[in-house]
Amino acid sequence: MKLFFFFLIRCSSITLLASSLDIVLYIYISFLVAFDFMAETRAVLLKELLKHQGHGSLKKLFVFGDSYADTGNCKKSVSGSWKPPYGITFPGKPAGRFSDGRVLTDYVASYLGIESPIANYNWRKSVKRPQAMNGMNFAYGGTGVFNTLVNEPNMTTQVKFFQQLLEEKIYSRQDLINSSIALVSLAGNDYGTYVFQNGNLQDLPTFTKSIISQLVVNLKSIQNLGVQKIVVTAMEPMGCLPRLAVFSSYKNCNESWNSVSMFHNQILQQELQNLNNASNNSVFVTLDLYSAFMSALKRQANNSGNSEVRSSLEPCCVGVSDKYSCGSVDEKGEKKYKVCKSPELSMYWDNIHPTQSGWNAVFSALKSSSLPKLY
Ligand SMILES: *[C@@H]1O[C@H](CO)[C@@H](O)[C@H](O)[C@H]1NC(C)=O
Ligand SMILES: *[C@@H]1O[C@H](CO)[C@@H](O)[C@H](O)[C@H]1NC(C)=O
Ligand SMILES: *[C@@H]1O[C@H](CO)[C@@H](O)[C@H](O)[C@H]1NC(C)=O
Ligand SMILES: *[C@@H]1O[C@H](CO)[C@@H](O)[C@H](O)[C@H]1NC(C)=O
Ligand SMILES: *[C@@H]1O[C@H](CO)[C@@H](O)[C@H](O)[C@H]1NC(C)=O
Ligand SMILES: *[C@@H]1O[C@H](CO)[C@@H](O)[C@H](O)[C@H]1NC(C)=O
């Protein structure tokens, strides 16, 4: 499938080139790239196939949010996602994903039968401005609906970037109405920032409500631009993130933080129901990351027998001491982290992010629950 899409993309650029040259040259190129030419035929066949499977036409995926969805938007100079050992499983070197490999966006894209959408950052800096026919990813690691500790665009600004593309006529409103899906990831950076600034969980329910109302504002903006299907992540069990589980030597999840996630999800669910009710059709779909993480953790726990990672809550890549984290190097450029031998046996890659295998397990759980509602 992977190889196939590579050809699909190359093929469309060749077709573009040919349309600006004469037909003889086009035929000549077609012969030269006979294999690609075949691929184009296959692309048409694939579209038909997807239609017959009830998937409709090929979709465009637009992505907003944080590191669970980012595929390369954060600044190379500051973001750990661009440093080894990130990306060792896929694509084989650091490429801006906060994992050893694929992340949520990649799995959602493959479910829709499309290539993972291009990162907005890569698209902007490329002179040729590629077609971006799979949509675009506006998610930035470390961000939230409000400004956080990282100096990257919050969700409101990400939606503005999206709106600019419509103003620049890269996409038309009708494009979006016909064939787009949005994925919105909110995994807890607003909470992290709140605790960093306030030192405790006091007044957290009030803060949860303000997060959700800001999220609703952003979701409505996306909908008003024409997107007819908007997939929103429910909060994962924050207390099971290694960052918090470390205090129990990875034996238990922090139940206080899991309650925060559950309260968040309850308010979120109510608000999405209201939004769906107001628009008559089910525009908004929740991706229940809470249950999906829980079932993935159970599945990975089964692996821990074979793994040097002792518990499903223990991350694969950690700093050698509290001062360091996954990807840290000292002034001399020496590695200050260690990586487990088999990332595929771990649920978590670092203190916050699942491994590719973890995301795969999360996605399997989602497929049997929330995802079918996309169609
Ligand atoms: C988002 O970021 C912009 C630019 O920093 C800021 O003006 C705006 O207030 C932020 N929005 C929210 C909801 O925090
Ligand atoms: C959108 O769909 C309608 C009806 O199926 C079709 O006529 C129209 O050409 C499509 N527009 C775009 C921009 O895809
Ligand atoms: C769980 O998190 C809360 C809030 O950060 C903290 O006060 C509590 O000590 C933690 N519990 C455990 C068992 O680590
Ligand atoms: C849906 O909206 C209608 C009218 O706006 C309202 O009467 C009804 O109670 C709402 N249903 C739910 C389940 O919120
Ligand atoms: C919802 O449906 C009702 C009746 O089918 C219609 O009168 C109303 O305009 C619709 N509202 C929206 C927002 O589409
Ligand atoms: C755990 O492993 C056992 C034996 O390999 C298998 O039978 C069982 O289904 C697994 N459970 C889960 C939750 O994957």
From TrEMBL:
Listed transmembrane segments: 23-45
Annotated SUPFAM superfamilies: SGNH hydrolase
Gene Ontology BP annotations: lipid catabolic process
Gene3D superfamilies, sorted: SGNH hydrolase
InterPro entries in UniProt: GDSL (IPR001087), SGNH_hydro_sf (IPR036514)
An example Gene Ontology molecular-function term: hydrolase activity, acting on ester bonds
Pfam families: Lipase_GDSL (PF00657)
Alphabetic keyword roster: Hydrolase, Lipid degradation, Lipid metabolism, Membrane, Transmembrane, Transmembrane helix
The family this protein is said to belong to: Belongs to the 'GDSL' lipolytic enzyme family.
Protein name: GDSL esterase/lipase
Organism this protein belongs to: Dipteronia dyeriana
